[in-house]
Amino acid sequence: MKDILAAPSVTALIRTMSNMYAKGWDERNAGNISLRLEESELADYLDLQAVDRRLPTGFSAPSLDGMYFLVTGTGKYFKNAADAPARDLGIVRLVQGGSSAELLWGFTDGSRFTSEFPAHMMSHAARLRVDPENRVVLHCHPTHLLAMSFVHDLDEAAFTHTLWQMCTECVMVFPDGINVLPWMLCGTNAIGEATAKKMETARLVLWAQHGVYGAGRSLDECFGLIETAEKAAEVYLKIAHLPVVNTIPDEGLQQIADHFGVKLREGYLNKGLSQKIVHNSKK
Fold first, then answer.
1. N or C terminus of the chain with fewer C-beta within 10 Å?
2. Residue 124: how many CB atoms within 10 A of its CB?
């Protein structure tokens, strides 16, 4: 067997965790990631018949039965994963309709997957119905998106439009927009179910006053998705208290979408800062 620590999926996840911690998105033991793996990616690294232990998941996801996931552990610090990956990460296979997970590797200190595991799996199931190539669900606490949820209207169209206007790249990176949940208690199936519902129409879901969930086909895609939205939120917070005299007009947003062949979320133009910009330009 090859060394699992050299597997591309493991090294990529550790690199992503380190980058997220460096950006300040995952303070203390905040944040969690799950990466769906194919059996063929694991066959050379693990004896897939050797189950270390079974872990109850506390939910049901029949569509994920038999699937493999590399997932971060509960109470783990992203900054430490590179030094102790076998302790802080685990590879599991869902069985019994998703109600149980077989631990195939990792969590060597006797721990288990993140408390947000049900929310992750529900979101995986939702995204796979939309995009069969989706592989990643990532949760973190980006500072500026979190701050923006305190001062901006949480209407999804308005929130999305404001972010689109902040950076030219935004409409290319997340033309499906960002969906928003009001504050809810985390670590529950209720917030997992609500997030999964939002994941049916967008790859980004903001948990107001908490953080963000992102989904994508790869770790880089998902990381870049959140990174772009976070940059836009930072720009917004730097200018929100100032008289805005220039911005990307809706015609410009549509031109970007047309040029790069992406479809903007229907009904999301003519929202956000438009009225404020018109008002301030008349001062």
1. C
2. 27
